[in-house]
Amino acid sequence: MAAVAPVATWKQDTIEGLERGSRVWYKASATTWIGATLQSVSAHECTFITDSPAGPGTGDALTAKSELLVPANPPVLDGVNDLTGLSYLNEPSILNNLRQRYDNDLIYSHAGPVLIAVNPFKGVQKLYTREVLQHYTSRSTSKQAELYEPHIFLTADKAYKEMCRAGNSQSIVINGESGAGKTETTKIAMRYLAGLAGGTGVEDQVLETNPLLEAFGNAKTLRNNNSSRFGKLIQIYFNNQRHICGALIQTYLLEKSRVTHQLSGERNYHIFYQMCKGATAEERKLLRMPDNLEDFSYLSASGCSTIAGVDDAADFAHVKHSMAVVGIDPASQTLMFELLSAILWLGNVSYRHKTADSVEVVDSPALTNSAALLRVPVDQLTHALSKRKITAGGESIDVELKMEAALDTRDALAKSIYAALFRWLVDKINQALAVGNKRTSGTSLSILDIYGFECFKQNSFEQLCINYANERLQQQFNRHLFKLEQEVYGSEGIDWTHVDFEDNQLCVDLIESRPPKGVGILSLLDEECIYPKATDSTFAAKLRQNLAKNPHFGYDKRSTSTDFLVDHFAGDVVYSCNNFLDKNRDTLSSDLTRVMCGSEHPLLAEVAVGIAAGQDKRGSQTVGFRFREQLQDLISRLDKTELHFVRCIKPNGLQVAATFDAPLTLHQLRCCGVLEVTRIARAGYPTRYLHHNFAERYHVLLHGAGADWKGRSALDVCKELLAEFRIPRDMYQIGRTKLFFRAGVLGHLEDTSARINRTVLFCQSQFRMAICRRAFLQKRRAATSIQAHARGRQARVAYTELLRRHRAARVIQTRHRSAAARRQYKRDYASVVRLQMGLRRWQLSRRIEARLVIRRKREVEEAAIAAAKQAAAEKWEAVQQRFGLDATSIVKVLELWTVHGDAFMEWKDNPPPPPPPPQPEPMPPPVQPVQPEQPEQPEAEPADRSPGKGRVAAAVAAAAGASATAGALAAHSVKDRSTDQPATVAEPAAQNNHVAAVGGDVDGDANGEEGSEGEDGEDGAGIVVPESALEQIALWEEYSCKLEQRVHALTHENDALQRQIEGVQETLAAAGVEGLSGGNTPARDISTTSSRAVHDNNNASPGPDGGFNEDWPEDGADGGQRSSVVSGERYVTKLQEELGKRAPMFVDDANFIREVKEGTSQTLYPMDPDAELRNLTRTWSDFKRDFESRLDDTGRVLKKVGKTRSPRTSNGGSGDLGHPSPARSSPTGAGGYDEDGDGSRRTKHKSLMSKFSHFGRGKPNSAEAR
């Protein structure tokens, strides 16, 4: 298109001519560049030091090939607002410049006439304040735009003011990748224009179109949460006063497939979610919407229904407000929402197999709701969704659909309704914004927001159309930049033939060419759509057959897939031919069209007319054909206007702030043409300087008088500088007001200037340092001398003052410390006194409290005893008054009644025969516990008692109750005094003896009372004996029976023992032995001795030799053997009783100490459990040693007695004279008695030893006691 520039001797992107210390970029990987400082350069290798966070040139020293290094721009060009102003226009320099500005929140930059907007992914409010807005709106047309920082406000302001100045229509083309911020940039530009040229009210309607179009045309994708899935051109019209008076919106290629299918993690169009979440209860009922939007398969298939930070319900309210602003009334809004709900219900319509090749629609709520919302009959909708009418030869045939075809038919209906609804919405907006009969200036300002270049893993028909549009826009972009470049060169008088320019016309022709000029992808696709039997495979084969020679077309010859490759200006893209034919045809069944046209829904019937008209034209107009026509019309519109380009860049794929992904940014710079801008600029003369600015900056590099350029022409100074540095003539051009340099020339000038400046600064610094150092040394010597004298005098004065203060301080410290010590002593003394007083008071209060507790307890016990005694006395008095008997008679009767019961009354009436001879005194009965007093029961008269006996029984029962009460109180008192001795009642044996003693008196009294009772029998019949008295009487009767049995047993044992003693005496007498007591002293009765031994065992004590002081005579004395038998048995019994009493006491004490230590028991006075346990252990050890000694003595005595008796029994029963013993004929001879006696004593001794060892194992110092 233009002449190729000659090869320049000055290489632009090489390190040729660079020296040590120059900044370079090192290519560490395919997408990574690292800054470095050059150290040395050779023919093929270079040594450099990389940068690090510590600073430039502080990293590692590396050596690499020269091809991996490119020159870096000087620091003076860091962060420039125009990329074309860089000396070196290589990729790392452009990326570094954008990164530096992005880190400082400067998201806008220029690349020649192109504005680059980097998405910050955060709010940068400082860029859009009212002050910033006024700063750009106040710009006059005479001022140069280069004086202002790049901004979208500046681009919009330039377009508007250029339109006002020249009267030409303007266009702002905004493109970029999804998520780069195109939609937000468009809204910011429209707000600026509304504020700049508003005043008619139309600007508000124009701004309110954005929420509507975003709701129906934007969706969440994997790359962007608010991605525009269509292209739009907004034409804003102005009146003669340059105010907004109307607008027109045109849309391009809506992505209809998103209605029915979304990738995982993406969403459907925003309006569906806004309606489901923001509709009121009444609207939900009208629209037949479920409670959960996940019930719709069109919304839940992708698994994503929410967007972080987005309130769909609030956005729905905003959408309804925007509809009202643009003139859509509530009734029309309701109709729109009904169609949207019907589309969602269509997605839930399901099929089932009718035969192997046909299906039928399942009758479900989804089908019913869809038909109700579309206002069509259910049977017609079912027929249209499951069958297709085919016309052939004038006849129509209904063909049943297969499962895949039926699902496609259902989805096609949903997509057609949504696309028609979107077009209807755009038409309504255009009607509201139409200019009409308003007077206009004939000029407009258009804003084009269109999708950027796309390249995914799977690219289909939609990506081909999008990239085709970008190719056409890039072609126009390149031509426009080339045109601008030529205009600049022409105005400066530069030979423009040196600019090289490449066009992408071949790639555009590959896609859109049509016969007879050639064939392209779209024309071949339309041709295949004509044939009914054409498939995606036949289309791929036709592409390879017709386009194989095109340099921008390719495919894998070794693969059988239908994929093909297109070499776009931004890179290679691989497309899959799958579904190309169906998407290009975009046909809808005539049955569905007729169903929609026959609907009673006003809005559906209206849009169905447009759908039917479009279907009639589809035979010759496919989607590709219509899109090509729309794109050509768009390019024609743009060509008639002045273009302003905005390229939006997404800095990272994570959509987070403060993150700059260099490889991703570089890819987008290629795709949106920014690198092409730099390439065009680099092909020409990108670096430009005004003559005056160039001379002022570099005149210091001239030698001699040339450095002073005052009074001289700036152009002459510039020529001298160019000659001084020997810059080749083809590397620069001198214009009328500017100097034009090839890329890289200015870098060498900057390097030379930097080296000279560094040298000059070094020389100047050394010279100034020498002068200053000499003056400094002289002044330092003088100052040192003066300071030495002054410091000496100050030191002496300070030392004298220090001594005086030191002495004064010692005096003050002494007085202060003494006073402090006295105060501290007084405080300590007072504290000790208070502590002692408090302790003594506390101890006294504890003692008083303990005594009060004891006193209160004693008083309570005494009061209880006194009350019991009083009650008993009152009862006795009541009994005496009632029966007219004195206390003595009542006691006697009670005793007799208690012992004999009814037998006493019978004995009273029928006296017994004379008593038998007196029997031996029985053994005392065991101690029985006191029975608790039973509550009084209702009185009842005994059925088997006579009236005379009833009065006696009542008296006896009353006396027994009083006696039991007194006995219980006495037992309670005794138990409180000593817990180890339980309370007992009077022994029954003593009562029997007492009864025997007073029997005659009582009998006489009883006889005397019998007559009176007989006389007063009726009165005595009313007396009832209490139940408690009857229970006491029953217990005494049971005990009397046991006592009688025991008396009989003891009598029998005494008789047997007497017979044995008599046998022994007879044996001894037969043997000629003297009496047991010596001489003729008669033998004592063993029963008497045994009784005395039993009753007097507490007075027995062992003698010094192991015998007994009173009852155990010396060995060999008369009767000693018999006395030893009785006394040994008695002493063993005493030891057994003593062990039985003492051992439980020790165990109880140990358990009590353990409970106190564990905290389960409390004591009246403080007690140390450990000390008490040690004392108890010591006492137990002493008792154990004493008891073991006594047991050993008893054992020795018993053994001695056994040895003494053995010789007498071993000779067959004969005595010293050899006379036979009569024991042989006696069944109870002396030998038998001796064996039983010794055996019984030994058995009792062994039992006592085992019992003592048992209690020894439970001694208080055992683990359990602890």
**Helix content class:** 55-70%
Number of helices: 37
| Major β-sheet strand ordering | 6-7-21-8-17-11-12
Based on secondary structure, the structural category is: alpha+beta
The stretches of 5 or more residues where confidence is low (pLDDT under 50) are: 1-10, 920-1025, 1071-1124, 1206-1238, 1254-1266
Shape: flat
The main sheet comes to: 7 strands, mixed
Please report the total strand number as a whole number: 24
Radius of gyration: 65 Å
Beta-strand residue percentage: 5-15%
Mean of all residue-level pLDDT scores: 76
N-end to C-end Cα span: 114 Å
Question: How would you summarize this macromolecular structure in one to three sentences?
Answer:
By secondary structure, the chain is an alpha+beta fold. The chain contains 37 helices and 24 strands.
